[in-house]
Structures are given as C-alpha cells and as structure tokens.
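Translate structure to sequence.
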C-alpha cells in the first residue's frame, strides 16, 4: 500500500510493503521516505517495511511552528495504530530519525523490539548550533529551501559518492528542493529543542545495531562509537567509503548488516 494515513491532526504519506516482522524506516532531515529506496524493495522480501514521510516532509501534511521529536515519535506510534501493527517493531532511523528514536523508546517503548541507528547523535545541540538552526529556519521561511540545499548537500555524502555517483546527489537535491519551507523550518526548530539522550543510553535494553558511514562528518565515527559503547545491547558496524547517508550510499552493504542483525536477533 502506498498512500495517506490519518494520524492525529495530520495525514502522513506512507509506503507499507511486504509481510512479516515490521521494519519501520524513519528518514533524516530534510528528506523523505525515498532515501530508503535501496532498502524498501530488498528488505520487503522478508519483512513488512513501513516507510513514512514525516510530518512536514515529502507528501505528508505540513504543520507550522515547531515540530518536536516527541511529536514525530507520537505520529509514528499513531501511524502503527492506523496500520494495525500491534507487534513491537524494528525501528530503523537515520540522523533525525535517530533523534526521534530516543523519544519513541521513551514514550512508546512497548512498541519497540529492536533498534537500528544509522548515522545519528545522542547529544543535544550546543547554544551556537541552536542559534544556527533558528537563523536557518528564519531564512528558509523568507527565501525558500535553497539555503537548505547549500547547507546540507556538502555534508551528506562521502567522497566516493561525490565522485562516482552524482545522480544520487542530484536526486537528494531534488527531494530537498521539493520540501515545504514551513515543514523544514518546523523540524529545524524541533531539533534545536531536542533533549540530550546520552544519559538514557545505559537504560536502553533493546538489541541495537549502530551503523556509521566511515566518512560521516555530521555524526562522526568517534561519536557513534560512544553511543554503541554506552548502549547495553549494541552491535557496531562501520560502512566503508560512505558519509552520513550510508543506507543510500551503499544499500547492499547496509542491507546485509540489517539482515544479519535481524537474523541474529531471531536466533537469540
Ligand atoms: C539529518 O540528516 O537528519 C540531519 O543531519 C540532522 C541534523 O541536522 O542534526
């Protein structure tokens, strides 16, 4: 099924394909579900893959103001309700999708059976980053999303992707250019207000796969290793020659990691 689902006061666009254990794919900022295109068809051969566009992104409804990580997490729980998915899911989030994962665990922990954290962070923004997000939100409300393309694209991809796969970068630019300025601004302000999840990590007793592109400059290898070390049940995986968008940059490698992780969990 591909279409819109009503959750609270918004309609979320979602791709729901395959059968079996549910795998919820939560995209990063300022993207949409298409960043998981290398995962959806492959993994839906064995899993029920649910890939929404978050509120304000892709073809989902836009909310004005600030959309917090808590709100996104509640939307996802409501989406699972609407899709009648009662079984605890594997939550796989990239970057902002990971920020939302901390809240999903805190607020809807009974719905979580496994966690896959791709290129994400646990810390909150320091004051200068909060200011930068506020300034960028104001700019894109005034000028449109082009400043986002300029701010994000140079940081998202590893060198190999930049040199050998320009089409991937062009497709990502097109997704950002199609994003609603209000939707992106609301998420920027929400990320600026997110709480530091570092102290929660030792209590997150959920089998977790931590995936990091080795050239990631947003959520660095050192920082992600610390997350993996602090989590009680984490497996660590470095994806060679990838940046922040590892699942998009090397889908076969990331899919293999996800499959091995889920098979290991099933066997345990
Ligand atoms: C993302 O990929 O979701 C963003 O890089 C997150 C951020 O801006 O902190």
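Result:
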């Amino acid at each position: 099924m591909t279409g819109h689902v009503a959750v609270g006061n918004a309609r979320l666009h979602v791709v729901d394909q395959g059968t079996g254990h549910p795998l919820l794919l939560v995209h990063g900022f300022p993207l949409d579900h298409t960043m998981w295109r290398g995962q959806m068809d492959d993994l839906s051969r064995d899993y029920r893959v649910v890939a929404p566009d978050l509120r304000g992104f892709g073809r989902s409804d836009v909310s004005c103001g600030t959309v917090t990580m808590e709100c996104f997490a509640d939307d996802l729980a409501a989406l699972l309700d609407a899709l009648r998915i009662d079984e605890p899911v594997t939550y796989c989030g990239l970057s902002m999708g990971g920020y939302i994962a901390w809240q999903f665990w805190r607020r809807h922990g009974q719905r979580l059976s496994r966690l896959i954290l791709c290129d994400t962070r646990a810390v909150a923004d320091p004051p200068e980053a909060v200011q930068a997000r506020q300034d960028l939100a104001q700019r894109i409300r005034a000028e449109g999303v082009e400043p986002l393309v300029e701010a994000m694209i140079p940081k998202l991809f590893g060198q190999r992707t930049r040199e050998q796969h320009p089409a991937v970068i062009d497709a990502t630019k097109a997704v950002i250019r199609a994003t609603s300025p209000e939707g992106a601004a609301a998420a920027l302000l929400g990320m600026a207000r997110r709480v530091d999840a570092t102290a929660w990590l030792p209590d997150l007793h959920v089998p977790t796969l931590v995936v990091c592109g080795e050239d990631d400059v947003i959520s660095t290898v050192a920082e992600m290793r610390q997350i993996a070390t602090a989590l009680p049940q984490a497996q660590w995986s470095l994806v060679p020659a990838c940046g922040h968008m590892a699942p998009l940059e090397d889908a076969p490698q990331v899919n293999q990691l996800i499959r091995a992780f889920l098979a290991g969990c099933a066997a345990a």
